[in-house]
Amino acid sequence: MTRILITAFEPYDRWPANSSWLTLTDLTRWYDGDAEITTRRYPVDLTRMSENLRKDLQPNFDFAIHLGQAPGSTIIKLESVGLNVRSNGSPLISNAPEAYRSSLRLEPCHRGLVAAGIPSEISHHAGTYLCNAALYLSQHYSKSYGLRTKSLFLHIPLAPAQAATDKGSPASMSTPMASAAVAMVIQYLQADPA
Where are the domains positioned within the chain? Predict the structure, then answer.
């Protein structure tokens, strides 16, 4: 049985909810696939997130799928690269690789999402904040501890309820569509683990 860690983030700043957690919560309500899923919600704090992630990866999952909120985005973004950089420009980990590229084949997954009517793209820059850190650190810890875990990061648009209450009504994607995208990614990983 495929074992997958799926993480999301708690609310932050002006957002009283986080679309990544809303998506993960929705997924757990209906997902009936044959993957064994472990879920975690991380604080929006680099030190605490890093400590939790290092601990949570120890069971040596097959895959880790990290979800993060992307205000303003209209599509699911499959992030391909995690950079060893903090928002202030310093490295996340001293004397570590500058970047990790996902070893997963993202193009077939992207094409599958689009064919199912779910807007998506492959992105080559996950930013320089916690989303990037989650992708980088997940890959770094897996390599450092000799784990088999392969990592992927998905940026999730705001949920409609979030957009409706925000000034300017930014772009959004329904939570059921976002959770369907995550389920499709799980299916893809099981069928084509690279």
Answer: 3-191
Rounded Cα–Cα distance for residues 127 and 81 (Å): 10
| Parallel, antiparallel or unpaired: strands 76-79 and 150-156 | antiparallel
Q: Are 102 and 189 in contact (CB under 8 A)?
A: no
Given the residues 66, 109, 110, 131, select the one marked as catalytic.
131
* Cβ partners under 8 Å of residue 165, min gap 6: none
How do residues 87-112 score in pLDDT, each as one tens digit?
999 999 999 999 999 999 999 999 99
Q: What is the pLDDT of residues 159-178, one digit of tens each?
A: 999 999 988 778 999 999 99
Q: Is 79 a catalytic residue?
A: yes
Q: Which CATH number fits domain 3-191: 3.40.50.980, 3.30.420.10, 3.40.630.20, 1.10.10.10?
A: 3.40.630.20
Which of 66, 110, 140, 155 is labelled catalytic?
155
| 109 belongs to the catalytic site | no
Partners of 6 in the β-ladder: 39, 65
Determine whether 122 is exposed, middle or buried from the number of CB atoms within 10 Å of its CB (0-12, 13-18, 19+). Answer: middle
